[in-house]
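Can't paste images in this forum, so I'm doing it all in text. The chain is below; anyone willing to post the predicted structure tokens underneath?
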Amino acid sequence: MKTKRRISFLSIGLTSLVFLGFAGTISGSLAWWAYSTRVSISYQGTSVASSEQLQIGIKTDDPNLGTLGMKREDVAGQSYYWCDAGAGLPAEIIKTYLEDEKVYASNKLEPVTSGSYTSGDLSLKNPLVSGTPFNSYTADTKKYVYIPLAFRIIRYNSSNVKDYAKGENIWLSDTKVQASDAEKDGEVYKAIRMFTSGQQATVNDEVLNFAPVKYLINPSDTNTSKGKTAVAGLLDISGNGYYDTYEKNGHSYNIVYGETEYETEDEILAIETVDQGDTSSATIQDFNLTGKTDELTTFSSKYFKNTLRPASFADLHAKYQNYDTIGTVKPIDDNGALSWGKPVCATDAVNGVANLDVTIWLEGWDHHVIDQENHHSFNLGLQFQISRL
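Text version of the structure:
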């Protein structure tokens, strides 16, 4: 299935930008649980465009990139392949790199989860299995994308000799996340998450300092305050139209999946419960607060008869994936001078190279990851920006 690319490049005066674009198609079953048909989101291409002031590369020693016009350069014992300044990073190059690495996804994604997250390092986890409340196993790398991007900022010194700017921050200043066809392609793009790992440069008393910065970002969220996704709830993994249950001490209980503030099963069993009674519910119950009761999904189902369940979602004391938004990380742009926001990486003080590790996945606990989103397409664009020099 071909996708429509609708990526617009933004002009920003004296600043410089890099635009990273993804286009993908969902196929198969999208309920992210392990029982279901193997799921995937197929990428049709990834590309990076650049202004003349920015040079984009990949931290790798993959020789095949040299045959695609990139130039190898070893910097501080690490191999990089660079595109010409301003030439951009074509989709073919990233696809070749991912396929040659044979470690991470190259043309499809399968839903995984970060689990609960506040700050620091990220550990993606595999999907849940029906009947097992929590899966602690590390996610298979083939289910998500990882790209070690690199940037250099070209400038000329007083002798008009080309140099690379040192200690300059780079921001994620804009995103374009949307269905390829607004009338047909649903909202699964809202389940995309990305994790960036780089360093930030600061100057204190004329001394240049660096500190590691790591952000989990929902690129479709434009709010100016951080957001969160619950990573616990009642689920219909079995697909029978009712929230899953289990038997304990002669009683039937709805299974509480995911991560809660409760540490033991006995604590969960002690939650105040409501008995469904001797008949099953006739209508869809929105226990997980999805806002939808018009179709059966993994997150919106029915209560089975003679089953004890928590009285409300609040009673679960669910843990959350806390994330930044484009509104919380993008800078304030004052005629090309950037400030505030959250820089995602910075050029180092010695070689002028900025390393940015980018991980992209489909978050399984997001309420948009449902079977009804099968065969939908999306576009994802990321704009990186530097302050004028």
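The two ends are 44 Å apart (CA to CA). The first strand starts at residue 16 and ends at 27.
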